[in-house]
Amino acid sequence: MKPFTAPLSRVLGWVWIGVVVLLLIDLLVNGGGRTAVVAAAVLLCTVGATYVLWLRPRVAAQEDGVRVVNPLRETFVPWAAFTWADVTDVLRIHAGGQVIRSWPLRETKRAVVRDNLRRAGSDGGPILEEESDDPRELRPVNLVARQLREEAQRRKAEPTAAAADDSGALSTVWSPDALVALGVPVLLLVAALLVG
Predict the structure, then answer these.
(1) Rounded to whole angstroms, how far apart are CA atoms 78 and 146?
(2) pTM confidence score
(3) Is pLDDT above 60 for 86?
């Protein structure tokens, strides 16, 4: 399965990186001195933040489980430990007694209200929060939750899945790439401020 991400934030992230590249080129051509170095360091800090907040977060269903990549941490939930996926304001993955919240897959209140008003206007009846059988009628995050539940059922039904993964333990780790993406530009900024 392909990773689930928020498409708008990814597009905006890449647009911002393109703008930063143009600004850095301008600094190289026209800038000089300490001010240009500090400005370049600030721009690199924004690129690190853009990567961590907009480009990196995703939910990826893999052969052996679900990987929830949030800005600074990654949580891996094996299919054996996966119990449910639902949506409140974000996609949530339940594993036993733990709940893992997904950063990139959010459901805005405005989208929920607009969807409810659209459904109420169609037949005039009360609005019930039940899932439709038609995937076209589901909100995008609810569709992802449904796909993860179906994938978990399929994986648990495979005889090799239960035998191969008997640990069933969650693992949450700090992400070194995110820490480097934030830390290195900040160190460059501090160095530019101190050296000048």
Answers:
(1) 17
(2) 0.79
(3) yes
